[in-house]
Records
---
Amino acid sequence: MSSISPQEIKQEFLKSKMGIAGITILAILVATSIIAIITIPIETFQEWNNPGSWISYPKVAIPIWVNFIMTEKIPEHKILETPNIQTNSRGEISLTTHQFGLNFDYNDFPSDFIYEFSSEYSGSPLLKMSVLRPDGIKLELLSTSLPFSNSKTIHSERIFSTDGSIKKNLSLQSELFAFTLDRLSAEDIVFSKTQINESLKGNYIFSIDLYAVNSEAQILESKLIIGGKAFGIMGTDELRRDLAIGLLWGTPLALFIGLVVAIASVVMGLLYGIYAGFKGKKTDETMMRFNDVIYALPALPFLIILSVTISNSIFVLVGFLMIFGWVGIAKVSRSMTLQIKTRGYVDAANMMGQKDSKIILKHIVPQLLPYAFASIAISVPAAITTEAGLSFLGLGDPSFPTWGQILRDANIFGAAARGLWWWIVPPGVMIAITGLAFVFIGNALDAIVNPKLKR
Amino acid sequence: MGLKRYAATRMVTMFGVLMITLLITIALVGSNMDTILKQGIGFQVRTEITENPAIAESFSSVNEFESFIQSQIDQRIKVLGLDEPWYSPQRIGLTMYKILLLDFGRATFLTSDAGSSDVKDIILEKLPRTILLFTTATIIISIMGIFLGALSSSKVGSLTDRVTSSFAIISSSFPVWWVGMLMIFLFAFTWQIFPARATPDIPSSDPRYIGALLYHMTLPLITIVMIGFGSWAYLVRNFMVGIMQEDFIMAKKTIGIKKNKIIYTHALKNAAPPIVTILALSLSGSLGGAIITEAVFDWPGMGRLYFEAITVMDLPVIIGSTYILTVFFLVSIFIADILYGYFDPRVRTGQ
């Protein structure tokens, strides 16, 4: 706590491996946060708890990189949104074709396929769906006419692989296959070898033809979803949410909570402690009694009651965490101030008639700064884990996807029992890594501020 | 200031804090509590009247009947003193007096395993289980921590020291409850060694209950110890390293007393005050359990009770358990303060 200049601290800090490691992790986390804020549209996290916006994603899909390790490839969930579009007009008939190419390279069948489109037309155009397989066989899947309309309308529809007419059309082509198709679902037939019912690898082309007679018909949006059991770099959860987005958004939120709580509580505690220590006597006595009261409040039960009865907004929670955060720092900075106060230069400044505020700012605060920085770094992890814990208990802010909330959902949906490790491990690892970064920085600073511990 | 006087001042402060905590709790849940109590009375009056058809028949119109019910309700509210708002001095005084005498009233939704809805019974049933798990864990943690800490302080910079220190730092940034989830995932489902839920499925009257409880306790115990002992070891190590640099130890070294002897007798003795203080603090602190850890392991103790009470907003249970948790917390701080004051007289003078 003695006089170490900022330059010395910087030098010492750069010498400590731990400090460097901490700073590196922190830099990566900050970069991740910036990437998250820039690249992911802000709506996605507001949509986090809206099941409707995740409908085209698969349920509890394993991360895709697992396929690099596994010999048996798990079918990936694919959302194909950029079809190859052709339009033809021959006399009265106009034809729009959307083709989706798909490289299917897995040992298992996909779980389903869905064609999602919206089309603008008048009359009653005909929609045909077929698939050209790697072995050259072309399977007719569907031939249906869209609902009749006199004027121009927009029609949106989802065609599922479970559709009865797809099944019927496939059974009409059963002579191509050496086994009976009765019990098989559409995707098990379309992606099957002809001799045995095993997945056929290679390039598939799904084509959707829209025929219109004497009128115009356009496909506005067109999306083919091949349902699989692997998706994204982090997989998805029971509610089909992309965990990568949740984890990415969790980073700036955790840093925000941790840093704001830590900085605010340290500043509060520092000023409180310095003022009490500097004033001394009765002021000190009363201020320290009040400090004792807050110190003796059981924090977690109170945080729970507060968030249940007052508000569970993340910003209010940050405030609550500050209430319990400043106490210890106030105690230490008070006793440090008591020591500094007795030094000659403070007395001298006092005698020269300098104002109290000036003495505090010029002579006392700078001496406590190294300690303050170390405390900030050390109190960040506690704030983050407390928030995560509250979220885990279901008391978090539902409008922000924090790591604690992901873990809560995992617990509710029994992720441990179902072996969904990608739902449990990454959020906790993120909490731990973030905590670790600050613990490293804090310990490195602490070792410089309290040289006794260095040995 | 003498030790007695110091203890007395601390005691008074602690009691004040306890009262303030109670007041804040009541202030936070008081208005909800009123609504729930009044609803309860209305419900009670109505059931009593419907059970007795003679009363209902004696009225000619529905309005008259309704006003009779209302007057009955008002009467009872008045008798119970609920016509005054919850923040009136008499009511707060009465509530606090009752709580001080450990009369927490009846739980609204929760019951003990034996079926009692008296909050005191519920708490008395849960408390021993929490003590069993968390106090055992704390004892194991402190013993391991003191040994490892002393060991690594004897060889600063050695492999043991570095491993202990890094383990301490790394483990301290993991939330215990998340490690708990992982442990459940690994040892209850992937390799089915331990049960996933820590609540035994046989009734507590069964003689095999104790055995089942111990078996169910193993996984949470291992988890808590695993995450906890590192920081203890680190703390003890730092105290010891600090003491090893004191002049009297240096003097002993120069005389030629063996290093091990210095560490295990002289240094450890001098590091005892802070260690004992922290031990007292964490032992009595462990009585309150950990709300989140118990929720993860489904351990039927105080923490889970608190969590359940919060989820269904069972206010008497919330107030009761907050009180008990606060009392334990304050007692632990008090003991720690006294021990510290006893070991280090400077504390007592307030400097």
---
Amino acid sequence: MKKSLRIMSLSLCLAFLLSLGTACSSETEPSSTADPSSGNTSAGETSVSEESSGEPTPISMYLVFDGVEYPAPGNDIQKIIEEYTNTQLEISAYGNYGDLYPTMLASGDFPDVMTTLDLPITKDAVRSGMFWDIMPYLDSTNNLKDYHPTTLENSTVDGKLIGIPKVRPLVRRTFVYRKDWADQLGLSVPTNVEEFYQFLKAYATSDLDGNGQQDTYGLIADKTVINHMCFLFGAPNVWEIKDGQAIRNFTTPEYLEGLKFMKKLVDEKILHPEWSTVSRNQFYNVFEDGTGGVMWDSTNAIQMLGARVEAKDANASVDAFTLLTDTKGQQRTMGEAGHLGWLSIPSVVPEEKVGKIVEFFDKTADEEMASLLVWGVEGQHYNVENGNAVPIDEAAQNYEDTIRYPYKLPFSAVNYEDYARPGIYNKYQQRALDIDREMLEYMVPNPIFPLDSQTYFEMGKTLDQIIEDASIKFVSGALDEAGFLAEVERWRTTGGDKVAQEYMDSYNAIHGGK
Amino acid sequence: MARNSMTLAKEPLWKSILRDRWLYVLLLPGLLYFIIYKYLPMFGLIMSFQDYKPMFGVLKSPWVGFKHFERFFSDPSFFMLFRNTLIIAFYNLILYFPFTIILALLLNEVTHMKYKRVVQTVTYMPHFFSWVVIASLTYKLLSTEVGMVNGILELMGYEPVNFLTSAQWFRPIIVFQGIWRDLGWGSIIFLSAIAAIDIQMYEVAIVEGANRMQRLWYVTLPSIKGTIITILILRLGRFLDLGFEQIYVQLNAMNREVGEIFDTYIYTMGVVGGQYSYNVAVGMFKSIIGIILVIGANTLAHKLGEEGVY
Amino acid sequence: MKPKKSAGERIADSIIYLVLGIVALITLFPIIYVTIMSFCDTNRYIPENFSLGAYEYIFSTNTFLRSIGVSVYITIVGTLLSMLLTSFMAYALSCKQLRGRSLILFLVVFTMMFNGGMIPTFLVVKGTGLFNSLWSLMIPNAISAYNMILMKNYFQELPEELKESARIDGCHEIRIVFQIILPISLPIMATIGLFYAVSKWNIFMEALLYINKNQLWPVQVLLRNIIFVLTGGLGDAGSEIYKMSFSDESMKAAVIVVSSLPIVIVYPFLQKYFTKGLLMGSVKG
């Protein structure tokens, strides 16, 4: 009797807990079913509510989010954006989008706007017709029509625009250096490779942090610096189309020159010895601690590195240089993709809605919206002095948390600074913006972004790995010149030559070559 | 199957089902679960014979036969990958697995309850460390720049050792990390098996004058033998599944020739590169090896008069 | 009935205590190191700049409490559900006279090697209507084949007379499970319960795949996001946390502490069920 009572109470407990589960999930259910634009409802339903114009357009999106917490739906900023654009946004924001993306893409479960990443699978998906071609819609926009032609070209597959590019500067690689140390040593900014070497060496051989030991390094960089170093010796920007052939940088003698230079830096303890294994993020600590004089990074890191260095040492400051005349006397900088993925519209979205979605992103570049995204809310995040927006320091964190991370960075439909009202940027921010603009005319683009190779799709990673490993081994002395050339040969026979040929064919198909 | 067993069985099928009806009721939810959430998704395995395109799904993607398997077996890296995977898996099996049993046996000998619990809890904790953190702890310990071990070596007048960028240190480090992280975790199941031993058996053994080693040998070990065999067989099924993340975060140019395994190799190609079909094909290869090992080990266990897993 | 320990026994004892002590110390050292790291700067060997900043940051996030609530909920309810289904199935399969038992066991083991992968599983989860519900984190992984087989093994080794006598008393099987089997199976229940609780607590990827409402994500998503942001994220954002009063390393360490502490402290409470003699008591009583 006692025992059966115990059983009864146990099962009652269970039943209670289980019903709690249903209660909890049913509590959350309405929000997902009531809103017709939630990711799992089909496109057909959404078009109904659209008939009555003037009604806000519901738009669901999967966005990349680099912050910690996404603000709750219905927050003030989102309301302002929704009101201005006459939309109703339903945003799912993912931190590690890169890991999820292939599965999301394959599962076919799409929102109205899907962030797509610059991976071979995206191009494959576009080719099979998974997303709308946005190109025809750009002409009728006010702001989006002004994309840089290279950014646009790098965003196409067979002439179709993959999505609205999430723009970032086309030229952004830079050397950030400790300005205070340069002043202390009386060094001026290097303009060519020889001066660059002397500059680094001066940092490495002086006791700059004043601890009585020569334990600072001239240059801190992670392994992705290899291409840039070799570029300084005249090697192509990864690929080059020349004389009817696609040439990969490491097949050129210039690349080997660059590697030898790097080896010299390693041997003379100028380059941080753990360059090939430590990630750039770990190196931020090293730079911040004053263990290195120059850090190779992108322009957007200037502000962050400046802030970190200054926080450790009030007298410290940073600056950056980019344009180094290469050993052949050419002034050039490496061009990058110009985007960080795209905002794509799945083909299940009805046609009449596509225009509205493009219009939405176009409107985010209108001055009112761009100013919101760049400066925040007037009176709350910035004041206006002499017609210039001046950020309020105390509100900086709030701006980052509620505007920059959740909306500005995930949208990035244009470079919003170009469309926002004028204002006073922080000195490092201004420096980054200046470098991005000044360097553009010296850009050497990487020609393969719009091109296509089935072999690269299948085994590109393996091929890249062969060369990366060989280059690192050469620089660290584990491989001699003959050994490196043998690895290049292995790359060629394993599929490298095929990749080059396919890129060339693809290039000819687009440009109508011979 | 039902028909076969009917002809073999002593009593008619309906009678035994009727007799055990309540057992079948208990079995039903579990069966449904396995059918819906484990067997239904297996239709995805046919992707390995297709060029899967998300746009067309499994139903309409083009068939390519054994293309992906052929590509995999003819990959110049195949033997390196197979070798590296086997070696690390083998070390794990002969080092990690026995250590968990030994730890449980040692803990069983401890009569001081507080001491036992502290050791038990402490060894269990590292299981919650992510590999990224373990890798960064390893870096702090072993790197040539900031590593404590190299600091000590230098103080003693030795040359620093390149632990993290050398081929010969890679496997020992990986295996040690694995043991460090999961030693206590792996021993839990054996501790619970030991706890289930009838205490009378020990009492009898003591009365008969058995010493410690004899009690261990004649009472404890035989009592947990079933558990050991079961876990061994189940481990064999996942023999080639090494911790992907652990190895991935510690691979570099200098140790790749000994460290690259199937999982890390297909991660860059299959997952990031979106070669869904290729990915499934490689997974299938590992599964087939696993099922062969399980069937082999289970048959062996039956031959030795053990229960096995099925 | 305590035999006096001989000299040999005492030496053996001290060796055992010593070995275990060394193992514990080797294990403990990094744990202590990480704990210190979460409060201090450890870029140099000696910890400096004591600060609670990393913890304050985690606790001050808006979603921390809610997401930890979600985690606790799926851990408790999910574990109960798993234990219920697993013990039912394990008990049924532990009865040797059950027709088809061996085949079913083989098919269960088979799923440990072969699975459809993320995409088809996702489609099934969606097809069974669990998308965007917390049940998607509890039902599709309700039974672990590994745990079920371990439990079945345990049940199988229980004295057969127990079940027989219960049947003669006229209990039907469901009552036998609750009344006879579960009370004498505490060691395995504690073990498997722990295994389930840990796996539910650590759920991460499934949450992101099966739920696209940020508000329903468990705490591991938030904590991983913090780490992800620290390690640079996908894009240009740089690190948001650099302005804070603590280092990246502290933050990573604090995340480890916060994400594992709640589940770590469960273990000592379960340890009493690993004590010998429990089985005896119940059988006799």
